[in-house]
Amino acid sequence: MTSGILLACGSLVSLTGALGGAALPRPWRVPVSATLIATACVVESVAAIDVLATGQTANWHSSQVLPLTGASLALTPLGAIFVVLVALVAVPAAIYWIGYAPHGMSARPTAGSFAVFITGLLIVPAAASVATFMFLWEMMALTSLALVLTDQGRREAARSAGVWYGVITHVGAAFILAAFLILAAHSGGQSFTALESHARALAPGVRATIFLLALVGFGSKAGVVPFHVWLPKAHPEAPSPVSALMSGAMVALGVYGIVLFGDVLLGGGPVWWWLIVLTLGAVSALFGSLHAANSTDLKKLLAYSTTDNIGLVLLALGASGLFSATGHARLGALSLVAALVLLVNHAMFKGALFLAAGSVQVATGTRDLDELGGLLRRMPQTGALFLVAAASICAMPPLNGFVGEWLLFQSLLHGVNLGNTAGDIAIPVAVAALALTAGLTIVAFVKATGVGFLGRPRSPGAEVALEVPLSMRMSTGLLVTMCVVAGVAPMVILPAVERAVRAALPGVGSAPLVHGVRLQLVSVRGVLAPTVLAVSLVVAVAVVVFARRALARRRVVRVTEVWGCGRELVTARMQYTATSFAEPVQRVFDDVLRPVRDIDVSHVAESRYVIESMSYRSHVNDQIENALYLPVIRAIRRWGQFARRLQPGSVHRYLAYGLVALVVTLVVVAVLG
Amino acid sequence: MSLLTAWRTVRGTRRVSETLRQNPDAVAGPSEIVGSLQLRHVDAGSCNGCELEITSAFGPVYDTERFGARLVASPRHADGLIVTGPVTHNMVGPLRKTLEATPRPCVVIALGDCARDCGVFRGGYGVIGAVEDVIDVDVTIPGCPPDPTIIIQALRGLTRR
């Protein structure tokens, strides 16, 4: 009951923040709004943690808020973990906003949208009826669309990104609505408990239709291939705190929707459902990581990497469903734990990376990696934070990314002899996909960190970059600290995740996953002691460093300049660029990526042996966008051209239409009457 | 068929590398370098005659690598430099930089008459002087160009193999 009140209070505070904060004059607007948002997040997460600790669902219903249906919220342990996840990103994003606001995020509409967006994110996982869910879902979608369009006055790309995002997210919402409507029509009620109790008795065909509709709808929000095309357009164009929230939290809610439908409302399904989820996940992971390795725009790289990470989560989700459907309930639970841990981790490190990328953009005025460089010297704190977050996303121990991928690997590697041929083939392939993805992710982030932060600055902007305001560094630091804590001591988050999984998959035993400082997997052999691992790593590094110092003391160290092949002048252009670093990968995956390379050579008029100038351009297009979306857009444009002929702007023609319509109606009435 | 021909050629070809005297005469160089010698080649203005002979010395017939000497691609990997040609104006800086970039201890070999005393290019308008005039030289190999056997002899003297 108390947590129900807290839930309502939290929503109220954040709405107050949204409306009150945005109305204030400029110097007060952002700090007040940000403080209120952070407070709301804290209150909501207290409610959520209470739910996770007690396992009791918090309910709240009001018939005054939404007309006709009333709003009903119910915070289940599964929803609670997502509320905590949103709060983990939203609090740093709000703090970051204080410093970031002067860079085009302080206008009233933007401030208001930002607060309403976070409110939506926070309450969506608590929605307990179809109307409440769709209302909050749309609130979240529309405000995030408004935020993507923040810069549309200045940049054409932002407008185009807004159109892509708006269309895909609303087509997705239509699919979700269709799934809900079919389910509600068969259940005679619109509350989730009513849906849940009737869904199991439905015909398999209806259940499958509902699941597939939900998978497409929520998959488009989660950025799963082939619905991912909006991510690399909208994430770079949105202001950085918004991209952090969209990538860390909003995309995670897409996964929440899939879990909600697959595991909670429909209560699991046949093997083929989950094979589809598994395949989508594996393809997304590979495609996302491959494009991330080939992107030169820092935020676009992070956006593709989001597709990659969500792919891994879906892979875990698919494996979980597959295990449950073949009667391995505990292994299924373990995979779901892996999926949720991956998701929470992703929120932490991707939030940190987007915030750090925003700091880089503010400091240098660009996010093109080929124009950055040497930032670790100019912005040491932001650089160090980016480095740690990048190590975490590459699953380096002792950071949190490692724990998530370890859990996923363990659950997949133990998924043998399922008694289902398709499943037995799919799991080893999934392991291979996961391994390749992990490697490509490392390429992407070695590139982002190495080209962006090491070496020499490649542009005047990078040369004069200054460290960003304290609030921006602090918030990024907060997320990076979470990465470290969740990596060294995952026992802080694992029991909560376990509780959520037990709520989503009833019928799983009660043996806990965490024993003291060790993670001891239930029902399979697998032990990890992250704290011991972290301590031993630190000790090993310290020993090596001290030993080296002690040995080096006897030698004379001679410092010379960087070897530049004996050239007199070493310039920034001699360094590896992001493009050249990714070139070998691009070449290996030529058939998938189909890069476009243009080389223009113009010769001196007198002789073809002397070159006057030479230009090289290379570009990697999204092949799925080219193959799936462009034909549809072209077809719609053709229809539009046709419709234009009907509406040429001539008043006479419109009057004629009216007359013809009247005559036709009269004729029809006369004939039928 | 061509594969079979290739196999016959491989089988039919006897040992091609020259047999050399077993015990080389020691050549004075840094005493730390024994057994293995990684060399970076610097062309300070050579006519490329010496380069041909170096290529030949490291080719399959003379095969200097069996005595521990190797050519490497960067001074950062090297124990020493092989410098050929008289030092020209354009190459003074790069030569000094290459030496500076080589870890110590480092052996500098001036290979060929031009490197030793400017040879036929002495007094040329682009020439600054012999290698010795620019950096300290440990070993000189005479000849215009030096025969691969002489190059090997000097390198074996350094590696003592």
Overview of the molecule:
The complex is a heterodimer of chains A (673) and B (161). Chain A is 70% helix and 5% strand. Chain A is mainly alpha-helical and 673 residues long. In chain A, helix 11 runs antiparallel to helix 12 (298-325). The termini of chain A are far apart. Chain B has 161 residues and is an alpha/beta fold. Helices cover 29% and strands 17% of the residues of chain B. Chain B contains five helices and seven strands. In chain B, the strands form two sheets. A five-stranded parallel sheet of chain B has the order 2-1-3-5-7, sandwiched between helices. A two-stranded antiparallel sheet of chain B has the order 4-6. In chain B, helix 2 links the parallel strand 1 (37-43) and strand 2 (69-71). Chain B is globular. The mean pLDDT of chain B is 88. The A-B interface holds A 558, 560-561, 563, 565-568 and B 42, 74-76, 93-95, 97-98, 100-101, 104.
Shape of chain A: globular
Ends distance of chain A: 64 Å
- Separate helix tally of chain B: 5
Largest interface: pair, residues per side? A-B, 8 and 12 residues
Write the element-wise H/E pattern of chain B from the N-terminal end onward. HEHEEEHEHEEH
- Please give the share of residues in helix of chain A: over 70%
Number of strands of chain A: 7
**Domain tally of chain B:** 1
Helix-strand makeup class of chain A: mainly alpha
Rg value of chain B: 17 Å
Shape descriptor of chain B reads globular
Spatial strand order of the main sheet of chain A: 3-4-5
The helix content of chain B, as a percent range, equals: 25-40%
Structural class of chain B: alpha/beta
Question: How far is the N terminus from the C terminus of chain B?
Answer: 42 Å
How is this fold's topology laid out?
The complex is a heterodimer of chains A (673) and B (161).
Chain A: H1 2-23, H2 26-54, E1 58-62, E2 71-75, H3 77-100, H4 108-123, H5 130-148, H6 156-187, H7 192-199, H8 204-222, H9 231-237, H10 240-265, H11 271-294, H12 298-325, H13 329-364, H14 375-378, H15 380-393, H16 400-413, H17 421-453, H18 460-463, H19 470-488, H20 494-504, E3 514-515, E4 518-520, E5 527-528, H21 530-552, H22 578-588, H23 590-593, E6 596-603, E7 611-619, H24 623-646, H25 651-672
Helix pairs in contact in A: 1-2, 1-4, 2-3, 2-4, 3-4, 3-10, 3-13, 3-19, 3-20, 4-5, 5-6, 5-10, 6-7, 6-8, 6-9, 8-10, 9-10, 9-12, 10-12, 10-13, 11-12, 11-17, 12-13, 12-17, 13-15, 13-16, 13-19, 13-20, 15-17, 15-19, 16-19
Chain B: H1 2-12, E1 37-43, H2 49-57, E2 69-71, E3 80-84, E4 87-88, H3 92-101, E5 107-111, H4 113-117, E6 127-129, E7 139-141, H5 148-159
Parallel strand pairs in B: 1-2, 1-3, 3-5, 5-7
Antiparallel strand pairs in B: 4-6
